[in-house]
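Thread amino acids onto this structure.
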């Protein structure tokens, strides 16, 4: 049985969070909101607890987890710092930026997917930060969905997919960002790498570093094993729609522009790129439940901000990378 408890996102009930923390400290699994998507949390330093995450999600064992911290000094416990990485933490945390650094021995191999590095992040969500604060250790927390499916952006979706597989869900309402964190590798600060585009735009990270983020070639891509698995995919085929093109017949549609001849009953039109990012995964799930035969999604034409992350999720959900 999975218990579920609702909290106010800005003023989360400390009794609910201390119960969640007790479960986590005892080696259990608790789903909780972050600003990006709902996470499935366990004590990152407890290998038995972390192995339950892989089982509950059906996640491949070589796909490492992000360690979530409530303050920068907690990250000291688990990774080796360098000046540039610390500067990024000071500027962008809490926020959707995950930083990969050399792991300290305290981090179990299963949390790191057997790699010599570990990924750390401080989520920008009061409920998440308070929960991590109440726990003994950083929380390993991938998205709270079955591996390969779209990430959950609200607690009901987590419940439908994870009921009976995890101990508790903390319901803190819908997430604010809706797309996962940007993951960068700062192991070698003279060669920062973009491992996964996401909620923190590339250009602001590059500005702070004074350097370009290189996209790793196929060899170094193995350093972020998660990126080669099928991801974010609804059970219905996803097709990319570009402005000015014809919409494939019978497809549901999501995007910012309104294609000619679109069936409004099977369309979600967003008024901004931010709302598009926030609504993409929940839209996939809605259309999946509606039994549509395909989902057309607009290709983001912008060259800044959330576009890179959104394009990545769209390509992956369409099975094109
Ligand atoms: P998820 O939490 O499932 O959204 O994904 C976490 C992402 O971070 C995946 O793409 C992982 O491959 C990546 N990641 C986590 N830890 C590491 C690490 N030590 N080195 C490289 N990539 C990592
Ligand atoms: Mg995920």
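Threaded sequence (321 positions):
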């Amino acid at each position: 049985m999975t218990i579920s408890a609702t909290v106010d996102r800005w003023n989360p009930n400390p009794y609910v969070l201390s119960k969640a923390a007790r479960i986590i400290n005892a080696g259990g699994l608790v789903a909780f909101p972050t600003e990006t998507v709902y996470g499935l949390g366990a004590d990152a330093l407890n290998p038995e607890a972390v192995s339950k995450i892989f089982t509950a999600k059906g996640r491949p064992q070589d796909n490492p987890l992000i360690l979530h911290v409530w303050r920068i000094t907690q990250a000291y416990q688990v990774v080796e710092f360098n000046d540039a990485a610390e500067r990024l933490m000071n500027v962008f945390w809490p926020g959707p930026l995950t930083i990969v650094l050399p792991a300290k021995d305290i981090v179990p191999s299963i949390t790191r997917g057997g790699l010599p590095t570990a990924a750390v992040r401080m989520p920008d969500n009061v409920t998440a930060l308070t929960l991590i604060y109440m726990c003994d250790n950083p929380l390993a927390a991938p998205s709270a969905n079955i591996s390969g499916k779209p990430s959950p952006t609200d607690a009901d979706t987590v419940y439908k997919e994870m009921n009976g597989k995890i101990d508790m869900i903390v319901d803190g309402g819908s997430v604010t960002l809706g797309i996962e964190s940007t993951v960068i590798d700062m192991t070698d600060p003279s060669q920062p790498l973009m491992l996964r585009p996401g909620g923190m735009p590339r250009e602001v990270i590059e500005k702070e570093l004074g350097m370009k983020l290189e996209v790793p070639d196929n060899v170094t891509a193995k350093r972020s094993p998660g990126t080669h698995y099928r991801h974010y995919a609804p059970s219905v085929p996803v097709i990319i729609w570009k402005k000015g093109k014809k919409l494939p017949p019978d497809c549901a549609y999501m995007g910012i522009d309104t294609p000619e001849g679109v069936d409004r009953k099977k369309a979600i039109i967003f008024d901004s790129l931010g709302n598009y990012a926030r609504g993409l995964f929940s839209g996939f799930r809605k259309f999946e439940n509606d039994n549509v035969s395909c989902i057309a999604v607009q290709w983001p034409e912008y060259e800044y901000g959330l576009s890179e992350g959104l394009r990545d999720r769209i390509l992956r959900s369409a099975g094109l990378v």
